[in-house]
Fold this protein.
Amino acid sequence: MKFNFRNSIPAAFALILASCSQQQARKPITQTSGKFMKESVDRNIKLIANEEALIDSIIRKNPERKYLASTKGYWYYYELENTKDTLTPKRGDVAFFDYEIADLQGNIIYSEVELKPQTYLVDKQNILMGLRDGIKLMNKNEKVTFLFPSHLGHGYRGDNDRIPPNLPLEVTVSLRDFKPEAVARQEKKPIVAPAQKPIVPVQKEEIKPE
């Protein structure tokens, strides 16, 4: 069979046109995606600024409290400070604590009784991002109240129950004790895996070596 060069020209031209139209069709997707990302970033910046302004107003209204600013973007003050001890929980320690969650107006969302005593394997289990860092600042037998912007709490999703999206939180923590994981294992202390939603009952399990 002879190859017809003339007949191939229209087909090739059509293929080139199709290819060009496909490339052009991808441009708006990139532009839209870039615009969406910029708008999302702008919204987040504005949200954080508004929340920080709200937290700042609360700090100003309570001059009797000595608030400290964390490098991680939250604020806290001591309700009960232990100046004798210097050790704080580190990765792999087992922390035993109680806590409650409120909004910035002090309205209790989850009480200490509801949340029950918590047992947390530091940096190896999932808890609030702000609390994950904050608990490592505490000495044994200290009670600290943290003010967390929403991105260090339950974020833009909330907890699908009592905490709505983008809600800054006031979290009060009492650190009762903490021990190295190996010591806790020898004492057969159970670890309660913190749940995504703090009110959901959690299953106790024995500490197991990694």
Remarks:
- The chain is about 35% helix and 25% strand.
